[in-house]
Amino acid sequence: VFTDPILMCGPIISEYLSVPSVYFLRGFPCGMDSEATQCPNPPSYVPRLFLNNSDRMTFAQRLKNMLVRVLEFVYCQPLVAQFEELACEIFQKKVTATDLLSHGSVWLMRYDFVFEFPRPVMPNMVFIGGINCGQKK
């Protein structure tokens, strides 16, 4: 199943059919991509999405980064709750969004370190940055 996993329908279908899934995405809010792939994601090193921090953060920026990471557990749960409910109903067992995403075979990430900060990645994460860039005039 080739899907953008933000809405979680693709991962649910691929798990239900027991077929491999390929995820095509820009990035996940809440760091769920790192969590699902078991990729190291230390808040003192990796800037959180939408904070506009670089990989060289001051102490205050690192503290803010850590606080945002802690708050992600609170504000991200409502985003995936309905899909977790649907998955529990389909599979007749407790399933989390991270469990569903962890079965992704390949993650096609639409960004590149040229435009982003360096961070740890897993071997099944492939960078295909630049496909959304417009032609220079």
Automatic annotation (TrEMBL):
The UniProt keyword set, sorted, is: Glycosyltransferase, Membrane, Transferase, Transmembrane, Transmembrane helix
Q: Which Pfam families match?
A: UDPGT (PF00201)
The protein's location, in the record's own words, is: Membrane
- Classification lineage: Eukaryota, Metazoa, Chordata, Craniata, Vertebrata
An example of a GO molecular function for this protein is: UDP-glycosyltransferase activity
Under InterPro entries, the record lists: UDP-glycosyltransferase, UDP_glucos_trans
Predominantly, its location class is: membrane
Which family, according to UniProt?
Answer: Belongs to the UDP-glycosyltransferase family.
In which organism is this protein found?
A: Opisthocomus hoazin
GO cellular component labels:
membrane
Q: How does it sit in the membrane?
A: Single-pass membrane protein
Name it: UDP-glucuronosyltransferase 1-3
